[in-house]
Design brief:
Chains A, B: This is LacI family DNA-binding transcriptional regulator. 2 copies of one chain form a homodimer. By secondary structure, chain A is of the alpha/beta class. Chain A is built from 12 helices and 12 strands.
Chain lengths: 338, 338
């Protein structure tokens, strides 16, 4: 079944009655070929099932017009909106996006980066800055352009992101201003995730700023799922005194927490306030709606694509594109109960 | 910056002090190399940033150990859980998954299939059966193994899926049995989506079975987003008589509908029942929780991976793997108001 009787450029040229150079042009610079010829060639390409060979095409144009992205998860819509915008921007200039999902696993990410580089990706989008030095060594030795998104690091790499720490600090400062003294946190797993770690640091900074001991903050780290958020919330509600506000490392955890609060007979926000992070679609659709941090996912996706395309084209690109975030106040956060 | 001074197999062999054959074995059949040698070679591979060339590797092993998937969307968790299981199964046998997302666009899907085939994917996972004949022609001419998932078609292709029509018919039959006469539907966009079309057919079949006119079913087609579900629900509530049950083509639309019901001051399920489809995580976390159709996403993902791996290995694989679905009754569906 898997015969791989691969049609050649010659086959296409013969079927379309044009030169192989014209076929190449149709594939690599279609706007330089008049429409009727281009259509005839593309019909032959389709009819024969011709695909430009990676090696040959890369030699001819220096590019494969494919960009790779390795994201931590395809689940839970965290990266979905930003990746959608990233893809649309690439698609509008004829570049195909291939995505791999590492499951927050450094070894798997390294393997996927290697696979994308091996398949000839012109450039890579990676999320955040936490990864082993060996992975960065590989990227630099291969000379493959890459952009780090969803965070801002202090290395010389290209970043398109926002300040996770400062955003979390602003939100926690707001929670403190509402009179909450017993605050707890459900964080993402910080070990492999600089965004999750920075958000914890931000909450601690706000406590310090308010003259409280940051070390006293109860924190449960949980993978990003409704169920994990729900279970972590139940554990925090066992504490004495019971927290009156639970700051969650993302919206998924917060939705899980709100669900559990209801199951426990606790009113949100009268008995306990809950906050999220990301402002994904679901944040507005839970009851009560989530107070959260709005992250400009779409704008980040577009900017990351533009930056990467510039780097691949050999143009100079800004090394850092920083986006602001803002607190979206909805029903899940209120003043501390008196 | 993008110098592409690509290290060769020779470079790795020299750095590790082994033969090129040993390097090849480490990359293609690592279990056939003793651990200390393998580690030395992999250190050299990492240090040099070596990636096996697609062409060379494909020639040596006949495989690239990469599988491609083209899914309609990465958004909204519809395919997330199944794809996660698909990826884990591939990962456990050392195969890397690259995913492209077509945005329910046939032309883009065709282009992504071509890109994945051109990058040397050993096999492809595609969702559903609705796509132009030219795409199927391309797949067959290339002889690339592919599996169609999330639905069951009547072609000779390999399917791993479930009967969308029968599942929707069972759910609608349950809604009718609860005394609802004014039933409406918010469906996915059926034009490019055989799953959405089959679900509409299933609801119509249930009406026919109950002696009602299937043509009288008010249907609004909407893209799969909370907001589209919310807007479609508002439009349906304008009808006279007002529907007492709204069957939604998936859980995302249903969550949007429930949110809008609250905004309109309608109680779910006392004033209006709402049902979903898919049983994604959020279904259990909205208020009231969703009555929906449980789809075995994870088991489908695993089965699709196993089937595709068998086909790539040249083993015979079942042409159809069919999964059952079941109705999950939660708070959003109740008897029609009297």
């Amino acid at each position: 079944m898997n015969q791989h009787t691969r049609p050649t450029l010659d086959d296409v040229a013969r079927a379309a009655g044009v030169s192989t150079a014209t076929v190449s042009r149709c594939l690599n610079a279609p706007d330089r070929v008049i429409a009727p010829t281009r259509e005839r060639v593309m019909q032959a390409v389709n009819a024969l099932g011709y695909t430009p060979d990676f090696g040959g095409r890369a030699l001819a144009s220096g590019r494969t017009n494919t960009i790779g992205a390795v994201i931590p998860t395809m689940d839970n819509a965290i990266f979905a909106r930003g990746m959608q915008a990233f893809q649309e921007t690439l698609s509008s200039v004829g570049v195909t996006l291939l995505v791999a999902s590492s499951g927050y696993d450094f070894d798997r990410e390294a393997e996927q980066i290697r696979a994308l580089a091996g398949r000839g990706a012109d450039g890579l989008l990676l999320i955040g800055s936490a990864r082993p030095a060996t992975t960065y060594d590989f990227l630099r030795r291969r000379g493959i352009p890459y952009v780090l998104a969803w965070s801002l690091g202090d290395s010389a790499d290209h970043f398109v992101g926002f300040d996770n720490r400062r955003a979390a600090e602003a939100l926690a400062t707001r929670v403190i201003a509402l009179g909450h003294r017993d605050i707890a946190m459900i964080a993402g797993v910080t070990a492999m995730n600089d965004r999750a770690a920075d958000r914890v640091e931000g909450v601690r900074a706000a406590l310090r700023q308010a003259g409280r001991d940051p070390a006293s903050l109860p924190i449960i780290e949980a993978p990003y799922s409704f169920e994990d958020g729900s279970n972590a919330f139940a554990a925090l509600m066992q504490r004495v005194p019971r927290p009156t506000a639970v700051i969650c490392g993302n919206d998924i955890l917060a939705v899980g927490a709100i669900g559990r609060a209801k199951a426990l007979g606790l009113r949100v926000p009268d008995d306990v306030s809950v906050t999220g992070f990301d402002n994904i679609d679901i944040a507005a659709f839970v009851e009560p709606a989530l107070t959260t941090v709005h992250v400009p996912h779409r704008r980040m996706g577009v900017a990351a694509a533009q930056q990467l395309l510039q780097m691949i084209a050999g143009d100079t690109a800004d090394a850092r594109v920083e986006f602001g975030t803002e607190i979206v106040e909805r029903g899940s956060l209120a003043a501390a109960p008196v």
